[in-house]
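Hey,

Quick one before I head out. I ran the complex with magnesium ion overnight. Inputs first:
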Amino acid sequence: MKEKSFVMLKPDAVLRRLTGKILTRFEERGLEIVAAKMMVIPRELAQQHYAEHEEKPFFTDLVEYITSGPVLATVIEGEECITLIRKMVGATNPKEADTGTIRGDYAIDTGRNIIHASDSPASAEREIGLFFKMDEICDCSFPDREWIQEEP
Ligand code: IDP
Ligand code: MG
């Protein structure tokens, strides 16, 4: 089933000039970037985005980190892509992330783990709604779809 995921390249990914390399992985896998926005996240939006972690000891640092520089917020589409992208991203703690995953290849610290990806269809819907208006998401037709997905 076709899904949309909210994928955000965090400030360390942008400032370490890794955005191209990371997006290339999703493109080469056959997923589709249907929205993208470079922005510095307002504190309030960061707190809303990470509301589930409000009570955690790392929450203040997390909000500080995510608002410390520009992020590249994106929506990525593809067949069952929410789980697929989480696999490509790797474990939250990059030291435990497999080599070959994005965090496993480019990061070391949990507090600087370069990328966010939605963890479920409900999170994806909520997160996309926080960052994008409907008319900012393209309904594109990718001509190579039939080579990548059984149901183009
Ligand atoms: P996820 O990004 O893999 O979904 P979550 O548990 O949802 O991981 O945590 C959200 C983000 O909060 C992580 O990506 C990371 O940036 C940060 N974080 C999680 N746990 C810790 C921690 O123990 N110390 C510092 N930052 C953390
Ligand atoms: Mg999470």
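The longest strand covers residues 71-79.

Talk tomorrow,
K.
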